Amino acid sequence: HVGYYGGASLVTPNHHEAEAVTLMRIRSADEAQQAAYRFRDRVGCESVLITRGEHGMWLLAPDGEFDLRAEAQEVSDVTGAGDTVIAAMAIGLAGGGSLQQSARLANRAAGVAVSRFGPTAVSAAVMPMGPAPAITTAENVRGTIAPTLEDAGLRLKHVRAIYSESDAAAPNVA
User: Which of 96, 106, 98 lies closest to 155 in space, CA to CA?
Assistant: First the structure.
C-alpha cells in the first residue's frame, strides 16, 4: 500500500519497513542513504526519514541528506518511539524549523522515549537540552517549550493554532 503515500511531504518508515519497500538490507549509513533514495522514488514522496533504532536516523530532504546518530543513552523499551518521532517532527515543523532541525528534535525526543519503560509522553521538562517547567497554560508556553525549541535551533511561531480561536489566553508568539 505504499502508493497511498505518493505526494506526501514526509514519510517516516522504520528500517524494517524501509527494507520491505526497497528490497534492500539496511545495516549501515551508506545502505540507509541508498534505501532512502529508493524509498522516495518508489513511494513518490518528497522526503524520507528512516528511523534506524540504535543507529539513529537517516533523513533525505530537499535541502540535503543527514545521518543523525542515536541520542539514547540506554534503551529500556521502544514502545511508542515512532509515534514520538512523528509528534516531535510535527512540533519542530510547526515551530518553523527545517526538516533537519525537526529531525534533530525528534531524535532527542525518541532518545528520551526509549529510555523509559512503556509508552511515555516526552515533555519539554525532560528533554536533554535542560529542565523546563511543565506546560499548563497558554500563558507559559513561551517560557517553557520555546527555549527547548530554540536549543534545537527552532522558533515557536504559531502557538495560537493549538488553541481555539476564541481562547483569549492564547499567546501571540511571532
Answer: 96
**Residue 83 annotated among the catalytic residues of the structure:** yes
Q: How far is CA 109 from CA 10, 41, 75, 88, 167, in A?
A: 18, 28, 13, 7, 29
Q: Are the C-beta atoms of 3 and 22 separated by less than 8 Å?
A: no
- Confidence (pTM): 0.72
Q: Indicate which residue of 30, 41, 63, 83 is catalytic.
A: 83
Q: Mean pLDDT per 10-residue run, the chain (174 residues)?
A: 91 96 97 98 96 94 94 74 89 86 90 78 63 35 52 48 34 35
Which residues are paired to 58 by β-bridges? 50, 67
CB 69 within 8 A of CB 62: no
The 3-class secondary structure across 29-52, one letter per residue, is HHHHHHHHHHHHHHHCCCEEEEEC
Residue 65 contacts residue 100 (beta carbons within 8 Å)? no
